[in-house]
Amino acid sequence: MAEAKKTITKKPAVEKKPASPAKKPVEKKAAPVKAAEPKPAAKAAADKPAVQKIQNATYATGKRKDSVARVYLALGKGRIVVNGRAMEEYFKRKVLQLIVNQPFIVANVAGRYDVRATAAGGGLSGQAGALKHGISKALQLSDPALRPALKKAGFLTRDSRVVERKHFGFRKARRSTQFSKR
């Protein structure tokens, strides 16, 4: 029988990399515990809401559309501060300033109360209406004798009209798509 010759090919020798030294387990160090430090005045002011409470003030919340106004009312000289700015600076249009002052005029107490308020959400018109609602509620809480005049003027009632949601198949809430004859 004829024996078949087997050819054996040697694979080239692969150089082995030297083994890396064994890694030591890393010990986690606990963070050093610091004593509670008092907050600086700037940080403390940033944590608080934008409105600063007035001593002996009456608080009320007013709402209109998507706007919410937090109102602090106290006896004073008639200054109105909205979001840290004077009312005339915040509401530049005279109509909006008139809306905010309406509760004082109707209750016949113009210039007797200071107001510090924050208004958020919606637009300026909604914020002015929310401020009017909040001032009216605060006036009524501070002096219950003013309630009949404010109620008759309709300032204690929340204007609940809000923007209607968009409906399926319509462009807006009620606006349908354009009709095409062909």
Short synopsis of the structure:
With 182 residues, the protein is α+β, with helices and mostly antiparallel strands. The chain is 28% helix and 16% strand.
**Share of helix among residues?**
25-40%
- Low-pLDDT residue spans: 44-49
Instruction: Using the alpha-carbon principal axes, give the shape.
Output: elongated
What name does the CATH topology of the domain at 57-151 carry? Ribosomal Protein S5, domain 2
What share of the residues does DSSP label as strand, in percent? Answer: 15-25%
Largest sheet entry: 5 strands, mixed
The ordered H/E elements are HEEEEHHEHH
Strand order of the largest sheet: 1-2-5-3-4
What is the CA-atom radius of gyration, in angstroms? 36 Å
**Could you say what the CATH architecture of the domain at 57-151 is?**
2-Layer Sandwich
Number of helical elements:
5
CATH class annotation of the domain at 57-151: Alpha Beta
Q: Give the distance, in angstroms, between the N- and C-terminal Cα atoms.
A: 94 Å
Average of pLDDT: 84
Please describe what this structure looks like.
It is a single chain. Helix content is 28%, strand content 16%. By secondary structure, it is of the alpha+beta class. It has a domain at 57-151: 2-Layer Sandwich (Ribosomal Protein S5, domain 2). A five-stranded mixed β-sheet has the order 1-2-5-3-4. A hairpin with a 2-residue loop joins strand 3 and strand 4. The longest helix is centred in the C-terminal third of the chain and has 19 residues, at 124-142. The radius of gyration is 36 Å and the shape is elongated.
